[in-house]
Amino acid sequence: MNILITGSKGQLGSEMRVLSSAHPQHHYFFTDVDELDITDRSAVSAYVQSNAIDLIVNCAAYTNVDKAEEDEATAQKINAEALSVLGNQGVRVVHISTDYVFSGDEHRPCRETDSVGPRTAYGRTKYEGEKILLAACPEAVILRTAWLYSSYGNNFVKTMIRLGKEKKELGVVYDQIGTPTYAADLARAIFVVIESPIWHPGIYHFTNEGVCSWYDFTLAIHALHGGIECQVRPILSEEYPYKTPRPHYSVLDKSKFKKTFGVAIPHWMDGLKRCMRVLNNE
Ligand SMILES: NC(=O)c1ccc[n+]([C@@H]2O[C@H](COP(=O)([O-])OP(=O)(O)OC[C@H]3O[C@@H](n4cnc5c(N)ncnc54)[C@H](OP(=O)(O)O)[C@@H]3O)[C@@H](O)[C@H]2O)c1
């Protein structure tokens, strides 16, 4: 297959590039906004045609939750309207969405059939993108994920390592519960989807297994890093100056993905250990 990967300089796109070497039967076209802007309909159509693309993996997105509040129009273009561009190319699409489509008020893992209720501009635009893509391309696969991190790009893991080294004491929220997800494991899940002998369109939830708070996650990051003496203190969300509300409980139920594709998913601690090995060797 000729596979176009958009947003390939981001966390997930970078992990797709790493993993592609283990799947040499495909031909890959890695692009980011400087080369192929997914909001540019004619550029995307020309690129798909001239490279005989069979499948698009959309790793591109407007992911800054706070900035999206101030500039929802741009987030809407990239997270929503561009899905009409990608979905109308006459090829299969694998797209990534988010736990932010839910309100975060539930106290049990969210299923794909649960009603959504985004509370942020980012969540609203990502949900719009899901609807636009499924209308344009009913064959599409959408993987909703959460708390994504990687050895590439900026993310919570790298921030906590930096702050742990800089500060003697650090308050981290313990009343937001979710599942940290190693982007390398999400990239693996994408290959499971695209190499499945039967194509299974629709929405799926995919994160690592298990749950924790940001506070627990930070303790694990510091312990695995080693040599960090910072005292981490649990705080409430109301004690942290969030610009944008964060979901209190954003655990996703992955039963549908595991049953459909017949795979086990690694626990978040296992994913974190592998990512920390990469970071500690850099
Ligand atoms: N990060 C998370 O915690 C999280 C949680 C749940 C779901 N997700 C979803 O997971 C997916 C991957 O996230 P990620 O963390 O890998 O994102 P990321 O690191 O922010 O990467 C996104 C990439 O897309 C690029 N991009 C932005 N606008 C574009 C455009 N118009 N055309 C082409 N490329 C464009 C970005 O370039 P610039 O950097 O230059 O803008 C960046 O390289 C996204 O769909 C995201 O919504 C992420």
Topology of this structure?
Blueprint (H helix, E strand, L loop, with lengths): L1 E5 L4 H10 L6 E4 L10 H10 L4 E4 L6 H6 L1 H16 L4 E7 L22 H16 L4 E5 L2 E2 L6 H11 L2 E5 L3 E2 L2 E2 H12 L7 E4 L6 E2 H12 L5 E5 L19 H7 L6 H14 L1
Parallel strand pairs: 1-2, 1-3, 3-4, 4-5, 5-10, 6-9, 7-12
Antiparallel strand pairs: 8-11
Helix pairs in contact: 1-7, 4-5, 6-8, 8-10
This protein binds NADP nicotinamide-adenine-dinucleotide phosphate.
Can you give the mean pLDDT?
A: 97
CATH topology of one domain: Rossmann fold
Shape: globular
Q: H/E element string?
A: EHEHEHHEHEEHEEEHEEHEHH
Task: Summarize the main sheet.
Answer: 6 strands, parallel
Major sheet: arrangement of strands: 2-1-3-4-5-10
Instruction: List low-confidence stretches.
Output: none
CATH class of one domain: Alpha Beta
Report how far apart the termini are: 33 Å
CATH architecture of one domain: 3-Layer(aba) Sandwich
